[in-house]
Amino acid sequence: MPEPRRRLDQPRSTRRLRLRVSVDPELVGQVSERLARFLGTGRFLFWQTLLVITWIALNLFAVTLRWDPYPFILLNLAFSTQAAYAAPLILLAQNRQDNRDRVSLEEDRARAAQTKEDTEFLARELAALRLAVGEVATRDYLRGELEKLRKDLKRRPTPESIREDARWADSP
Question: Where is the stretch described as Disordered (predicted)?
Fold first, then answer.
């Protein structure tokens, strides 16, 4: 049976084997950060230095154990492999830290903007209260007005004094 004609405007179907591997990016990021932190410690440097000294000593002096003679090509390969994996892990850890720093900075900016808005609102409210207090009678003002009224009441004649004055005026 002849093969059907393919249309030129449609892509060919691929017959590749596709493996679907799901990787949790958060887990990879956490592992890379732990590894990057460990690579930067004194403990790692101590153990790596001890391993290199042992490697070189065994390959130089132990005649029966020479698996990597003098140019130490296998040791260089191990260092190259370590560097090939360490650099991307460190970069991944730095990128994750940069993302956390960016989120933190955005939150700080938002918090600072909200604080500024709150401060401006409180300043406006305080100014409005000052204006309102300026229109309200203060304690000193009320005390002064009451004192004036008291003096006026003392000077004002009482009903008895008016009657007495009237009696003196009526008498010949």
Answer: 153-172
In a domain, 6, yes or no: no
Number of domains within the chain: 1
Please give the backbone phi and psi of residue 113, each rounded to the nearest 5 degrees, phi first.
-65, -40
- Asked whether the beta carbons of 52 and 68 are under 8 A apart, the reply is no
What are the tens digits of pLDDT across the range 72-118? 999 999 999 999 988 988 898 899 999 999 999 999 999 999 999 99
- Cα R_g (the chain), whole angstroms: 47
Between CA 91 and CA 144 the distance in angstroms is 77
Instruction: Examine residue 7 and state whether it is found in any structural domain, yes or no.
Output: no
Is 99 contained in some domain? yes
Q: Strand ranges (DSSP E) for the chain?
A: none
Instruction: Kindly list the distances between the CA atom of residue 92 and the CA atoms of 25, 29, 35, 68, 97, in Å, as whole numbers in the listed order.
Output: 11, 7, 11, 33, 9
